[in-house]
Amino acid sequence: MSLTNLFRKRHKTVCFTTPSHSQKFFITSKFQQFYKFDISETDTHNPQAALKISQEKASKIYGTKKTLFLTNGSTSGIIASVLACVNKGENVLIWDNSHQCHKNAVELAGANPIFYTLKKNVDWGIYNSITAIELEKYLSNKKIKAVIITSPSYEGVVSDINSIKKVCEKYGAYLIVDEAHGALYPFCEKLPQSAVNIADFTIQSLHKTAGGLNPTALLHTTTDLDVESALSKISTTSPSYALLMTIEKNINYLNSKKGRKKISELVENIQNLKKICKSVKFFEGDLTKILIKKENLTGYELSEKLYENGIEDEKTNEKSTMLICGLGTDKRMLNRLEKVLKKI
Ligand SMILES: Cc1ncc(COP(=O)(O)O)c(C=O)c1O
Question: Quick one: 132 and 276 in the same domain?
Answer without folding.
Answer: no
